[in-house]
Design a protein that fits this description.
By secondary structure, the protein is mostly helical. It has helices spanning 3-18, 23-39, 42-53, 59-77, 87-99, 103-122. The protein starts with a helix and ends in a 25-residue tail after the last helix. InterPro entries: CB, DNA_brk_join_enz, Integrase_recombinase_N, Phage_int_M, Phage_Integrase.
Length: 147
């Protein structure tokens, strides 16, 4: 750490103390909030949901679901806290799948998202499921786009 960086950190700590904020306590609270946020990410809850229910599925079905989650959803919304994901954000992810010509996969991903959100609600980590708001937003499966 350079001297100027150390001075800036000291200045920031003194500023916090002058506002009656303990810098060490703030660091602990921030670290804890970050950990809770990671535990409540879409990916963490989806993996928990998958682990809980995949034993009831035929192995090939479970493999398709986890592959769909890992390939099509986690890269875009996996790290986001599940309670903060909005319908437009979810639609943007589903449109990415649709735009590559995988409309059936987009519909299945939509279903899987709804299942994950409902699980998050049941376990107290989300207030609502934005997936029903997207009903009709994707063309029907099998739709070719031409008349």
């Amino acid at each position: 750490m350079t001297l100027s960086v150390a001075r800036n950190k000291r200045y920031e700590a003194r500023k916090l103390l002058s506002n009656d904020v303990d810098p060490a306590m703030l660091k602990q609270v921030t670290k804890r909030a970050s950990r809770v946020s990671a535990e409540n990410s879409f990916e963490a809850i989806a993996r928990e949901w998958y682990a809980k229910f995949s034993g009831e599925w035929v192995p090939s079905h479970g493999e398709k679901i986890i592959r769909r989650l890992e390939r099509d959803l986690f890269p875009w919304i996996g790290k986001r806290p599940i309670a903060e994901i909005t319908a437009p954000e979810l639609l943007a992810v589903l449109r990415r799948i649709e735009n590559r010509g995988a409309l059936d996969t987009a519909h299945r991903a939509h279903q899987n998202c709804g299942q994950v959100f409902r699980y998050a609600i049941a376990t107290g980590r989300a207030e609502r499921d934005p997936s029903p708001d997207l009903r009709g937003a994707l063309p029907p499966a099998g739709y070719s786009g031409s008349s």
